[in-house]
Amino acid sequence: MNEETLPGVESDRPTRIVLHVDMDCFYASCERLREPTLRGEPVVVGMGYESGETFGAVATASYEAREHGVESAQPISTALERLPRAETTTDGDPDSSPAASSQGEAVGHYRPVDLEFYRSVAASVKEILHDCADVVREVSIDEAYLDVTDRTGWQRTADGDRTLAEGYARYVKQRIEREVGVPASVGVAPNMSAAKIASDHDKPDGLVVVEPGDVREFLNPLPVSSVHGVGPVTADRLSELGVETAGDLAEADPSTLRSQFGSRGVELHERARGRDDREVTPTGRPKSLSRESAFAEATDDSATKRETAAALAEDVAARARSRDATYRTIGIKVVLPPYDVNTRERSLSGPVDDPELVESVALELLEEFDEKPVRKLGVRVSNLSFASGEQAQLDGWDGGDDVALGADGSDERSETDETRRAEPADEGESRSDSGDGTPSTTRGQISLDDFDP
């Protein structure tokens, strides 16, 4: 179907047709491929649950596990409290049978991250996506945008029940299920942000179509957090302005939004009104790699903060290594109540690939906030290099000073370590800051690529 267009499609169509394909609980779905007995059972993919492991977090929790309060990015210790691990068999392997708990309580089936296996499954999915669209933007291992404007149309079928675009999206969705065996949710809309919202609207295994004339009506009643780019911090700030729904955001004064959020506020206002002119384009190499995790409530517990930072550092370093990238800068982001964003970084004397260094620098930078309540943490590596070459010797820092970063991640050395209020990053884009969309872990290492909302 590389060059095919479905019957009835006109050649001149100005309105774009975008599909957002989001694999449902992808890592858990992959585990169910090789262990069919896990279907319908609570599945948790992550690390830190084995004896002797000290740090860990949940990468993916199946919907059955979420019913017990297990969530993505949650410390594995919390997950185990809410959903005990299924008993192991005599040979030490986890028992995947439904009744693994002798007490009869609900149990979860915990599995380590197996990147190579997930990559192989993702490759099969993406072969289908590239076969079904001329332009594919791979956001992460489990998520992609497709421009199918030249493959289908917004016209309705002869019986008037659906658009041709809906039929084409169903075809893509069914091919993934039939040929690969994993479920996907698909959103169809005239632009990227609306398609993203549509795919999230009826998870899991959903298909939601928003026709060009219905975008504003579809968005209006949704909570403002549904707007692509509005994360928890921004949603709270908007709530203080009386903005609770996407409709409220669409009707808000753009000048007020600009004063509160800068140019991003105007962009979110446009998205809430159903306007998004971005083209679906393949993604190039990233300038930085980062991962963030928000706490349900602000915490001043040092162990919890260090555990989270260590897991994030491990993931970021693994992401860099999977892309054959080295980095010259290591930094953290700390959000203090109510919305004070603080960033710190350290520059190295040259590019390195050193996961242990990323963790140690992140934890050292975090010490400044040891006694403070924190609501969100992030770890970042930047100044990336992709060319092969000799790594720098770690006999000293370049400059040796910690510096505060601008809201865009730039080095604002004139402010040194001054804590300041900054505009939060586009929280809804956190899963796409990898740039090229490739997965980022090895077996036993945590990846936050599959953190579902």
Structural write-up:
The chain has 453 residues and is an alpha+beta fold. Among the domains are: 84 residues, MutS, DNA mismatch repair protein, domain I (3-Layer(aba) Sandwich), CATH 3.40.1170; 53 residues, DNA polymerase, domain 1 (Orthogonal Bundle); 137 residues, 2-Layer Sandwich (Dna Ligase, domain 1), CATH 3.30.1490. Helix 4 packs antiparallel against helix 5. The longest helix has 21 residues.
* Name of the CATH superfamily of the domain at 288-424: DNA polymerase, Y-family, little finger domain
CATH domain fold name of the domain at 288-424: Dna Ligase, domain 1
CATH architecture of the domain at 288-424: 2-Layer Sandwich
Based on CA atoms alone, the radius of gyration comes out at 22 Å
What are the secondary-structure elements, in order, as H or E?
EHEEHHEHEEHEHEHHHHHEHEEHEE
Q: By helix and strand content, what is the structural category?
A: alpha+beta
Main sheet: strands, sense, barrel: 5 strands, mixed
Principal-axes shape call: globular
CATH class categorisation of the domain at 288-424: Alpha Beta
Spans of at least 5 consecutive residues whose pLDDT stays below 50 are 1-13, 96-102, 388-453
Topology (SSEs and partners):
Layout: E1 18-23, H1 26-34, E2 43-46, E3 58-61, H2 63-66, H3 76-82, E4 109-112, H4 115-132, E5 135-140, E6 143-147, H5 164-179, E7 184-189, H6 192-201, E8 207-209, H7 215-219, H8 232-240, H9 246-251, H10 254-261, H11 263-272, E9 288-299, H12 302-322, E10 326-336, E11 340-352, H13 355-366, E12 374-385, E13 403-404
Parallel strand pairs: 2-4, 7-8
Antiparallel strand pairs: 1-6, 1-7, 2-3, 5-6, 9-12, 10-11, 10-12, 11-13
